[in-house]
Design goal:
Layout (H helix, E strand, L loop, with lengths): L5 E5 L12 E2 L2 E2 L2 E5 L11 E6 L8 H15 L3 E6 L28 H10 L2 E7 L7 H8 L10 E3 L2 E3 L10 E7 L9 H14 L2 E8 L5 H6 L5 H17 L4 H8 L5 H21 L3
Parallel strand pairs: 2-6, 5-6, 5-7, 7-10, 10-11
Antiparallel strand pairs: 1-4, 3-4, 8-9
Helix pairs in contact: 1-6, 6-7
Bound molecules: flavin mononucleotide.
The site of flavin mononucleotide has 18 residues, from α1.
Length: 288
Amino acid sequence: MIVPYLVAEPAGALIDGRQLKFLYLEIQEGYVTRTASDRREEEDKVKVLAFNSSPHMEKGGTSLVLTPFLEGMEEAGAEVELFYLHKLNIKPCLGCFHCWLKTPGECVQRDDMEVILPRFAASDIAVFATPVFVDGMTATMKMLIERLIPLMLPLFAIRDGHCRHPQREGIKPGKLALVSVCGFTELDNFNPLISHMEAICKNLGVEFAGALLRPYAAALPRLGRSGIPVEEVLEAAGSAGRQLVREGKIEGETLEAVSREFLPRETYVRAVNQYFNRKLRELEQGPD
Ligand SMILES: Cc1cc2nc3c(=O)[nH]c(=O)nc-3n(C[C@H](O)[C@H](O)[C@H](O)COP(=O)(O)O)c2cc1C
């Protein structure tokens, strides 16, 4: 939702959306918008650019962990901008390599990546937030990452003993943090995603700053109502954000607190099956 007193500025200028603690941005016809009253002293702040690729956006389990993480970053003095990928128009990469040869640094496609690319290049910390979909990131998140290649040069270089593309000049080296949630109970559900993100960071030449991982995230509100101290997960996510901005890294203990186990796997599986069996029975019976 865009609030009425917004000023619109051309893509590439700073903008903002609604009254969250951090800036939530929308793009409409190549324009981003922000409240005139909300201009900040941006220059010397750590710039954080966050993407949430959950189709459930602010109502999903991903947002449950991402929101306190971003709020923690802002409390520590960062300027935070958030985009929901499901609200953006990002087309798949055409693989034409024009961004490397004919139009260096620029994609031939006219879509919301025109707004995202300069922001990504100027950010100190990027946050990629995705639910686990079939053992990896969502397709929308992968599509965004593939469209980052205009930031790289076509040339090959040996970096840390490996063949890579150097970044274009003017791109901040930056850090990248992952936020992910999944439906199953084991932490190893995140392993393929973490390996992938680590490889992506090496590929893009950015530092992997760590991962906030939350199994059975969707159940947290319900567990909270039954007296389980799930607020500790959200507090830990906030601490992780503050640590990353203030100290440049997240403590292992903090990440463990985000992922902590609350109940035996068997108990959780039983509860999930009870829920789905009840829902299926209700559907079979139809409306009263
Ligand atoms: C298409 C699809 C694939 C999924 N694949 C996995 C999976 O491989 N492993 C897992 O633990 N959860 C899987 N999930 C469950 C989601 O990760 C889980 O529901 C998560 O909480 C969704 O986050 P959100 O509410 O932010 O969208 C999948 C969900 C969907 C819709």
